Fold ABC peptide transporter.
Amino acid sequence: MGAYILRRLALIIPTLFGIMLINFALTQFVPGGPVEQVLAQLDGGGDVFQNIAGGGDAGGDVGAGAASSGDDRYLGSRGLPPEFIAELEAQFGFDKPPHIRFLNMMWDYMRFDFGESYFRSISVVDLVLEKMPVSITLGLWSTLIAYMVSIPLGIRKAVRDGSSFDTWTSGLIIVAYAIPGFLFAILLLVLFAGGSYFQIFPLRGLTSDNFDELSLIGKVGDYLWHITLPVLASTISAFATLTLLTKNSFLDEIKKQYVITAKAKGLAENQVLYGHVFRNAMLIVIAGFPAVFVSVFFGGSLIIETIFSLDGLGRLGFEAAVARDYPVIFGTLFVFGLIGLLMGLVSDLMYVWIDPRIDFATRET
């Protein structure tokens, strides 16, 4: 097993390198880079020039060079001196060839130096840590609730396969799976957040304005009060998928010969179900927990965070992509890609932990 773990860890490096290389190459063909973003803001007026280009002296250069043609490579550069455009390129690192920029970026990332945001004057690490509590809240609670509800329900549906209980719960699950998360979120707001009916839950945010003044019990209650609707909205699709996965896993195991043999020996149904079937049936469900958590934690949260005005990683990624904030885009991509690859290894180790008969050490890759 140790050799297998080392091989998997060694594969993470080229895999992560390939992910970063593909995304870096794609951004080279996307119009509207950081320089264009600055020029667009300058063209619209404001003091962006002083904040980004370094103050009043450069501002005088712009005024003096207003008659210059600028750099035709950039939209909005007309009337700006080429020296100013070159200064912007140097500030953002675009004065170097793409392959040099990529290698420098990867060297920094291998040392976990992710730099600073282009437009926020804050390090990428601090920015991610600032937004992470919201995403942890949605990801962790949504995953735990999905498992706590889906596993017992899936087992019950497998045991009573074909009954009326199985039929009507399957109907509810199909409906839940068909409803988009953002539509369900809007429905919850309309019904329970003062939209048109009940004012039970808050409309936005993760805590109340007076959160710091509350007691410990009050803070816990306020926190749970705020996360109820966002968690429900982000859980609905995972709940449906896990329930059907659990049911099908148990159905496959219940029909096997060892279950028939155990029943023939006189074991009670619960002994057979939870003493023999459970470990084998839950292998694929439990081993997939890391992947499910990562998918809920990093993906699909943008719309939920936007609807409920939660400032998390989903909105951070979207805003960084719109602003072409490359340090935030690539820094978070590197970290999340590394976490995703490590979670794949953790999933394999969980397979072995749940069922020791599985031996990945005999695999070649």
